[in-house]
């Protein structure tokens, strides 16, 4: 089934001359790694492939600032109508909220690994058993008979290592390690990626983390571990929204936690009064994507998120009630 889907996507890519690649807003390592990896692959095949990210995504999160995505477009290309549009790592089309990609007549290829993917493309390869979208791009490299170059391998390795939580989440299986081995053979450096992505934190991140850890709260006998970051926390530490990445993972490491929750104020002027909620499930007992979907978001069973206008106490009540229901 998925094999056939992958072949269909490979056929689409093979027969397109002009393409536009994009990924979800607030791009993470898998989003950017897949985007860059597929871009390099298509360029190797001689295609006119462009990448698109909205202007407000810049600057990119600190850990990805070194990624060579020069030339990425921030506005629709004039020849958009001639381009095959490829969405990467997007569970639904609203994950890239720009209108021009919804125009009539645009042909969409959807490459993703979210189990709740809405299959919004004309052609879709959706494989929830893939550890990351970068894994699907890696399979496309083979399917298209391309050469895995060092820059491609490094981009895909970043997607793999971030989406698997450095090979420690439940989506880490033998295939993730086989992919890693092949990427390393092709030139990806685990040490260099680790230094760039995980060990070059701007100091403001540690200050923001300290604030988050200082006010951790636990509910329901420790089943829910949560914290909150206010607009003031960001302003006073000089942090931007991407600097809160990873804080929720500290909460999931607390013994007894079934679900970790980070609530943070959104900073953009047009999002004042809205909060972003990140949910992480610890042991497979709770499907956090169900909770996120019920509140207008989505994600994976183990990692999901949503944006809400609910006040923090009220939204925590909702999350607690849903976690309680799922745990019986
Ligand atoms: P985050 O908590 O932002 O790191 O997001 C965790 C995962 O949840 C992401 O990898 C996405 O798959 C998903 N996700 C986050 N926010 C949303 C949203 N607003 N809509 C759909 N999926 C989301
Ligand atoms: Mn992602
Ligand atoms: Mn992903």
UniProtKB/TrEMBL annotation:
Residues 235-323 form the DHHA1 domain. Coiled coil: none annotated. It comes from the Bacteria. InterPro entries: DDH_dom (IPR001667), DHH_sf (IPR038763), DHHA1_dom (IPR003156), Oligoribo/pAp-PDE_c-di-AMP_PDE (IPR051319). Pfam families: DHH (PF01368), DHHA1 (PF02272). One of its GO terms (molecular function) is nucleic acid binding. Transmembrane segments: none annotated. Residues 19-159 form the DDH domain. PANTHER family: BIFUNCTIONAL OLIGORIBONUCLEASE AND PAP PHOSPHATASE NRNA. This is RecJ. It comes from uncultured Solirubrobacterales bacterium.
């Amino acid at each position: 089934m998925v094999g056939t889907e992958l072949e269909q996507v490979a056929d689409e890519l093979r027969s397109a001359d002009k393409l536009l690649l994009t990924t979800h807003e607030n791009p993470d390592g898998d989003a950017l790694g897949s985007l860059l990896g597929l871009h390099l692959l298509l360029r190797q095949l001689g295609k006119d492939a462009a990448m698109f990210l909205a202007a407000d995504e810049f600057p990119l999160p600190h850990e990805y600032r070194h990624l060579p995505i020069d030339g990425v477009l921030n506005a629709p290309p004039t020849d958009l109508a001639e381009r095959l549009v490829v969405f990467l790592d997007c569970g639904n089309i609203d994950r890239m909220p720009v209108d021009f990609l919804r125009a009539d007549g645009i042909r969409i290829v959807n490459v993703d690994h979210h189990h709740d993917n809405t299959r919004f493309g004309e052609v879709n390869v959706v494989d929830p058993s893939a550890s990351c979208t970068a894994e699907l791009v890696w399979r496309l490299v083979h399917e298209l008979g391309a050469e895995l170059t060092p820059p491609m391998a490094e981009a895909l390795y970043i997607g793999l290592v971030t989406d698997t939580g450095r090979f420690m989440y439940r989506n880490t299986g033998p295939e993730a390690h086989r992919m890693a081995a092949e990427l390393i053979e092709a030139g990806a450096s685990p040490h260099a990626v680790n230094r760039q992505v995980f060990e070059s934190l701007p100091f403001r991140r540690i200050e923001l983390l300290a604030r988050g850890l200082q006010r951790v709260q636990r509910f329901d006998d420790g089943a829910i571990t949560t914290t909150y970051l206010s607009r003031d926390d960001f302003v006073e530490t000089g942090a931007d929204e991407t600097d809160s990445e990873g804080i929720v993972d500290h909460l999931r490491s607390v013994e007894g936690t079934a679900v970790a929750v980070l609530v943070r104020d959104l900073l953009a002027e047009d999002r004042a009064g809205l909060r972003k909620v990140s949910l992480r499930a610890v042991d497979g007992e709770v499907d956090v994507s169900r909770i996120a979907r019920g509140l207008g978001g989505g994600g994976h069973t183990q990692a999901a998120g949503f944006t809400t206008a609910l006040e923090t106490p009220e939204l925590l009540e909702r999350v607690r009630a849903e976690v309680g229901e799922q745990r019986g």
